[in-house]
Amino acid sequence: MSPKEREEKSHIILQTLYQMPLYEEAKIILSYVNYQSEVKTDDILVRALSEGKHVFVPKVLGNTMEFYQITDIKDLSKGYHGIREPNNGTKFIEKLSGSQHTKINAPLMLIPGVVFDKERHRIGYGKGFYDRYLKGLRETGIQLHTLALCFECQMLDRIPYEVHDVRPEMILTENKLYQ
User: What is the DSSP string of the chain?
Assistant: First the structure.
């Protein structure tokens, strides 16, 4: 896709996202920061912050990943593989400790990927950061909604997957919501 087409399709995806009750009701958003040809997320970060949502983005720490709260998009600087990451902040797990949340207004995590299939399997960049992070949250009992953002051209009928892979609840493209 050309940069212009990626921008246009990202805009369509985000406009659909903003109208979803899943987004509207979420008080906490965990979002990736776009890298290379992924759906652009800067507008999500800015909008969610302006709506008073608590926004967390990932930072790679060796072989693990943690989500840290940001209060401004300017809180990001180049980190792991040139991906913008938070400079510091409160960890998502620390923010939730002691607080009550339900599946109704559970946090929403936006997940990136390289390729997906209609059964909601995903292939990322091969390090398993999201799979491990989501498994860790589940082990602590934290509930959240997971939504992958991608372009329709990234959707295939079937892709290889492993038993330990964690599938997002839904995948949103410029054409369709897969669930």
Answer: --HHHHHHHHHHHHHHHHHSHHHHH-SEEEE----TTSPP-HHHHHHHHHTT-EEEEEEEETTEEEEEEESSGGGEEE-GGG-EEESS--BHHHHHTT----STT--EEEE--SEEETT--EE-SSS-HHHHHHHHHHHHT---EEEEE--GGGEES-----TTPPPPSEEE-SS-EE-
Q: What is the pLDDT of residues 24-41, one digit of tens each?
A: 999 999 999 988 888 999
More confident residue, 32 or 163: 32
User: How far is C-alpha 161 from the geometric centre of its chain's CA atoms?
Assistant: 19
Average pLDDT value for residue range 148-160: 90
**Burial of 36 from C-beta contacts in 10 A (0-12 / 13-18 / 19+):** exposed
Q: Give the pair of three-digit tokens for residue 87.
A: 């400079």
Question: Beta-carbon neighbour count of residue 142 at 10 Å?
Answer: 16
